[in-house]
Design brief:
It contains 9 helices and 10 strands. With 242 residues, the protein is an alpha/beta fold. The chain has one domain: Alpha-Beta Barrel (TIM Barrel), CATH 3.20.20. It has a 5-stranded parallel beta sheet with strand order 5-4-3-10-9. A 3-stranded parallel beta sheet has the order 2-8-6. α3 runs parallel beside α9 and α8 packs parallel to α9. The longest helix has 19 residues. The radius of gyration is 18 Å and the shape is globular.
């Protein structure tokens, strides 16, 4: 019955349930230009443009920086990341793919038990604008239902894979009861075979600090696991909650 109601809501919007959404597909990026408070101008403008769709590129709490991790697959570092977060009394959002939710139950249960937020990154990590409305719904809600059934956790935040979106997808995501979380800072940390040097990564992450910042990190990164504790300390030294 819930699935039928969601499909009907798409039809009410005047959308064909069989027509892909890709005609206006875009890729999000915060850009490099910042204001006097180190906040990326592109992130601020994007939220102003799409905020009515429940989109966040920045947290409304300007005293806080959110650490978020995209969880596509396990590379052996998530347990260390969780250890550091626990040691530092910090929490994060972990955006799970379906494959991760199914393959790593012990780590996912630990995330929940230690007070972290689980986010939805799509059952198959699909580019949403290439999907029909009914496929998009299944991409989000099949993972939503799996996590609810297996971890007794109801997710409410979604991160579009690869930052790909269009206005219609943002509206449909909101209609499914989700808020869309992009980011205001990201760097090239996702390739295990080309990891940034820890010292330069820590410097960049620290200097990028800005009120309401949402950091996109990948847990497959050896560098992120190595510098996370120092990063949290550095951000707190600047007066931010993490």
């Amino acid at each position: 019955m819930k699935r039928l109601k969601r499909l009907l809501s798409g039809a009410i919007l005047g959308l064909s349930l069989l027509t892909p959404l890709h005609s206006n597909a875009l890729g999000y990026g915060q850009g490099t230009q910042c204001d006097a408070d180190h906040c990326p101008i592109g992130a601020r403008e994007f939220q102003e443009l799409y905020g009515d769709y429940g989109v966040y590129t920045l947290s409304p709490d300007k005293n806080r920086i959110l650490l978020t991790f995209d969880q596509g697959y396990e590379n052996g570092y998530t347990a260390s990341i969780l250890d550091t977060l626990k040691e530092k009394n910090a929490t994060a959002i972990f955006f799970l793919t379906g494959d991760y939710a199914k393959r790593e139950p012990e780590l996912v249960r630990r995330m929940v038990a230690e007070g972290h937020v689980l986010g939805n990154h799509g059952m198959t990590h699909a580019a949403l604008p290439t999907l029909t409305p009914s496929q998009l719904e299944d991409e989000l809600m099949s993972l939503h239902d799996y996590v609810l059934e297996h971890y007794d956790y109801e997710m409410q935040y979604f991160r579009p894979p690869c930052g790909e979106y269009d206005e219609t997808t943002l509206s449909l995501i909101q209609g499914l009861g989700y808020q869309t979380v992009f980011w205001s800072y990201a760097y090239v940390d996702w390739n295990p075979d080309a990891q940034p040097e820890p010292d330069s990564a820590l410097t960049g992450l620290t200097q990028a600090a800005h009120g309401g910042g949402i950091y996109l990190l990948h847990s497959v990164s050896k560098t992120n696991a190595a510098v996370l504790g120092d990063l949290i300390d550095n951000l707190r030294d600047q007066g931010y909650q993490v």
